[in-house]
Amino acid sequence: MENKLDFIPDSKLKLMDQVRQVLRHYQYSENTEKIYCDWIVKYIQFFNARNYSSKMQGKEINMFLDYLGSNKKASPATQKQALNALIFLYQKVLAKKIPQDIKDIKLSSTKALPVVMSQDEVIRLFSYMKKTNLLMAKILYGCGFRLMECLRLRIQDVNFETGNISVRSNKKRKDRIVMLPQSIREELLLQKEKIREIHKQDLRKGYGAIGLPETISMNADFSVKSFGFQYLFAAKKVVKDLRTGKMRRHHAPESGLQKAVKTAARKAMIEKKISCQTFRHSFAAHLLENGEDIKKVQKLMGHSNLKMTKKYIKVMTKKPPEVISPLDIIQESISNNTGIL
Fold first, then answer.
1. Cα separation of 153 and 143, whole Å?
2. Residues whose CB is less than 8 angstroms from the CB of residue 121 and which lie 6 or more positions away in sequence, other chains included
3. Which of 101, 146, 209, 324 shows its CA 20 to 30 Å from the CA of 256?
4. How far is Cα 317 from Cα 284, in angstroms, rounded to an integer?
């Protein structure tokens, strides 16, 4: 059964080039492009099928997922990632409809509770980090950011006047606004000036152009070299953009901060599985511990469902402040005035 496309890839291209063309048309991130392409290649190789468009149908997806789960012991999250890539292949590239029961497949899983650090553990871990990695780690914890949300921050996203940071194009394609921790305000200002100098050097060398956010028109050529669109945490080198062929300075790589966090956790002797995501989990849990309203925490985290936020109640390292009865608050005054009248 055919599926109507709103964008038709060039049929003269090879399959994987068509996949990349469609992914780039919808402005998927480079990371998502790589992940989807890897899964599609594995899928085709699994069936040893070259004539994929005519011989392979949606039912093969279930066979492939069963193989990943049974033979490769892939986690439900990994299977879900593969499923998303294959649904994209069939619906957006091959223009084929797949059965609804495949799209709605529920991959069995025992959802583990998020790992959360105590405030003391956060302090200990920070003591073994330094410079830019420390600043980025503070943002992860202080704002509840995902790793890529931090790395993709642009200069214009940090509003020092209002004390807010805008989070754009997160994984749910929804923007949100979070607080700017005042304790790192000066550090961020210094980082901004550091990037300003780097940008000036790039401009003098004929570089300085940068990939624009999805919300900005690709015809806005005047803004391609704008300082406001530069990454707050830029990479050390200017490299050739694989998509455009132009020389650009991308954001800092994920691996640098990931390694720094794991190394710091080991030196701090924290006996938990710590990753960059642990800071985000700890942010939510600690806000709830401090008595913050759960719906406000939901908004700061960017959760679409309150159930996603409620899971942090189960992993709080200490109880939130207890509600004190108004009677207890005035009890001393009542006792002192008893018998006066």
1. 12
2. 268, 270, 272
3. 209
4. 12
- CA-based nearest residue to 43, from 52, 34, 32: 52
Of 42, 63, 258, the C-alpha closest to 146 is 258
Q: How far apart are CA 150 and CA 137, in angstroms?
A: 9
Q: By mean pLDDT, which of 240-254, 260-274, 288-302 is the weakest? A: 240-254
pLDDT in tens, 200-213: 999 999 998 887 65
The answer on pLDDT for 109 being more than 60 is: no
Domains annotated on the chain, with CATH: 15-103 (1.10.150.130), 112-321 (1.10.443.10)
> Contact 147/258 with Cβ under 8 angstroms?
yes
Residue 220 to residues 5, 169, 208, 246, 331, Cα–Cα distance (Å):
27, 19, 15, 17, 66
Q: Which two tokens stand for residue 320?
A: 């939130």
Q: How many whole angstroms from its chain centre is CA 134? A: 18
Residue 51 C-beta-side C-alpha neighbours within 13 Å: 2
18-21 long-range CB contacts below 8 Å, 24 or more apart?
18/93, 19/88, 19/89, 19/93
Q: Tell me, letter by letter, the H, E, C secondary structure of 152-200.
A: CCEHHHEECCCCEEEECCCCCCCCEEEECCHHHHHHHHHHHHHHHHHHH
Token pair listed for 97: 């409809």
Q: Region 105-114: what's the mean pLDDT?
A: 66
For β-strands 176-179 and 158-159, DSSP reports them as unpaired
Nearest to 308 by CA among 297, 293, 319, 316: 297
